[in-house]
Amino acid sequence: MKSIKISEALRKERKSLGLTQGQMIKESKISVTHYSKMEMDKIEFLLMI
């Protein structure tokens, strides 16, 4: 099974769409600073399923 960090997946998807971080979060309620930290793996993610 292939694994990828969420931070890497976010950056890869954003770049494949040709978007800046600001454009990527335009419709969200997070700041560019917060999103940047997500891409840099500086924030822990909690996934509940």
Structure notes:
It is a single chain. The protein has a domain at 6-39. The protein has three helices and no strands. It has helices spanning 6-16, 21-24, 32-39. It is globular, with a radius of gyration of 11 Å.
Q: Please report which band the strand proportion falls in: under 5%, 5-15%, 15-25%, 25-35%, 35-45% or over 45%.
A: under 5%
Which H/E pattern describes the elements? HHH
Main sheet attributes: strand count, strand direction, barrel closure: none
**Overall strand count:** 0
Low-pLDDT segments, ≥5 res: none
Helix content: 40-55%
Which oligomeric state applies? single chain
Number of helical elements: 3
Name the overall outline.
globular
Q: Terminal Cα separation, in Å?
A: 19 Å
Compute the average pLDDT: 91
Which short descriptors sum up this protein?
49 residues; mainly alpha; single chain
